[in-house]
Amino acid sequence: MNVLAPSPCLAEGSPAYDEFLGLLGEKVRLMDWKKYRGGLDNKCEFSPAHPVFEKGGFKLLWLLFFAADTTGTHSIYRNWKDVEIMFHISTLLPFETANPQQLARKRHIGNVSG
What we know:
The chain has 114 residues and is of the alpha+beta class. The protein has helices spanning 15-24, 103-110, and strands spanning 26-29, 44-46, 50-55, 58-62, 65-67, 74-80, 83-87. It has one domain (16-110): Rossmann fold (3-Layer(aba) Sandwich), CATH 3.40.50. It is extended, with a radius of gyration of 19 Å.
């Protein structure tokens, strides 16, 4: 299979590229990922609890929670011979339409050290 890696400035890859990613490893949801994450964001954030209702000594609280997903929602993970690998895939990193240079993507792709 002849597959070229897309530019960091492309929003998504081709079906052949997605098939190639499937050969590298499994596509995993980063949120709450417990294994090796390779520096990618896997946390969600919570706002402080706010009282909504109080009656008879009981308080009903609400938490506003949102997923940061600053490095995307998914990535490609592989455990090969007890070595965990998290691939930084440009097409799975957030794409900012207002940023033609895609600096956030380049930061993660160009800053990989061993």
